[in-house]
Amino acid sequence: MDLWVLLGYARAKFYSHKNPLLLRTKDDKATNLLDLCQSATPPCWLNPLLWNGHLQTVWTVLTKQNPLVYYKRIIFTAEDPAFQGTFTVDFVVPPHEDTDAALPPRTAYFNEDDSKDLQKDDSKPMLVTLHGLSGGSHEVYLKHVLEPLFKDGWEACVINARGCAQSKITSDFIFNARATWDIRQVVKWLRGKFPQRPLFAIGFSLAECIGGSLEILGRSSSLIFVGPLQYLGEEHDKCLLEAAVVCSNPWNLDVGSIALQKTWLGLHLYSRAMGANLKNLFELLVHPNPFIVVSDECMQSYQSDLEKPTS
Fold first, then answer.
1. Closest Cα to residue 128, out of 66, 180, 59, 60?
2. What predicted TM-score, i.e. pTM, was given to this entire model?
């Protein structure tokens, strides 16, 4: 360990296909995805007291830092008859004083006076955001991404998984890693509502199994990385997104679950935290049922107690 590491400097490593995807910049210069990522990534200086990922994860839970991101919410009715019900999308908006005790802080529903905000014919880039397991638009990690982008002129929205972010559940299911029907509907809706805006997406953790893989998608390009992605893979060359970015993708859920159970931190800290969050969400959404008993608060127990075959 050298002096720079002790002072908090984090070395960035880049991995790519041996033949990275070829791109052209706005000024029509030739480049590739690897060079673009390297040139766009600034130096990273971390707090030297938080020297590993575990401490950084704990710090994000304990810290009081919370970017002031304001939302207005729309309730969508699912168009796919196979997945009936409603879901919510929170749009990042300028600061407002509207409140709703039934929603997360700084979140309110769109009203008639706000309708003009949904009729803009601009070409601002727009980010579609997918949150992690049992999360929502209120998550701190997500707002740390949205706040600077919105200030820099981007538009953004967050697709809340069914039942998350204090949304009502109106279907007989909540969410899973292969649930692509809601993001597909929202992306099509955004393309029709804002035909001039380039659409981008970012997903975190579980959402990345829904949202995609680390790559740039040209309108006529094929996917160059095949993993446990769903939406991008299903859309293939018909995808309406210009680009998609992943953060902390578990890639293989089965292998990831086994790996979590092999370490003390994985089993007793991370699995229990995720299991407790899922259990709390379940209890908020479902009336007490004497036939359903969750025996433990670890994620694997929750899964085995509540899973059922799907047709």
1. 180
2. 0.80
> In this predicted model, what pLDDT tens digit does every residue of 18-58 receive, in sequence order?
998 898 888 899 999 899 999 989 988 888 888 888 888 88
Strand pairing report for 70-77 and 107-109 = parallel
**Is residue 10 helix, strand or coil?**
strand
Could you give the strand order of the β-sheet that contains 215-216, starting from the edge strand earlier in sequence?
107-109, 70-77, 86-93, 155-160, 126-130, 199-204, 243-247, 215-216
How many angstroms separate the CA atoms of 118 and 127, rounded?
Answer: 15
Dist CA 157 CA 130 (whole Å): 9
CB-based contacts of 38-45 (< 8 A; 24+ apart in sequence): 38/14, 41/12, 41/14, 43/9, 44/9, 44/10, 44/12, 45/7, 45/8, 45/9, 45/10
> Which neighbouring-strand residues pair with 275?
none
Judge whether 72 and 91 are in contact, CB under 8 Å: yes
What residue type is 144 in one-letter code? Answer: H
Cα–Cα distances in angstroms (integers) from residue 288 to residues 46, 282, 284, in the given order: 45, 10, 10
How does residue 137 score in pLDDT terms, banded at 50, 70 and 90?
Answer: very high
What is the model's pLDDT at position 222? Answer: 30
Instruction: Look up residue 9 and give its two tokens.
Output: 């400097």
**C-alpha span between 158 and 103 (Å, rounded):** 14
| Residue in 185, 179, 241 with CA at minimum distance from that of residue 207 | 179
User: Do you know the residue count of the chain?
Assistant: 311
pLDDT at 21: 86
Collapsing DSSP to helix, strand or coil, 121 comes out as coil
